[in-house]
Write a structure and sequence with these properties.
The chain has four helices and two strands, in the order αββααα.
Length: about 100
Amino acid sequence: CDWGDFYYFDRFKMKLQQDSKVHGGMKIKAENAEKHVSLKLLFTRVFQHYHKVSKDRICRTLGIKEGSDEWTRFDEEVRWVLTVPAIWGDSAKQFVVEAAV
């Protein structure tokens, strides 16, 4: 998969609510291309990017320099909480947990 291009996925989280049995092999179509991407890969990439951007912003605000001991310990000392809508089924909730780890 070439991630050099940008693809737009409209309401991709709603895909988890609509399907009764969510699994890692599911695919979703990009709105701006004929590209189909694994839903698990999409969620994993979104979580990775969100974590990086959040960590960078928090550390910058706290004056923690990238590469420092504090920067390295940040992930060990900070507990990230991921919420999911209560309306989602158990398989969708489990899917998100697996994609986020």
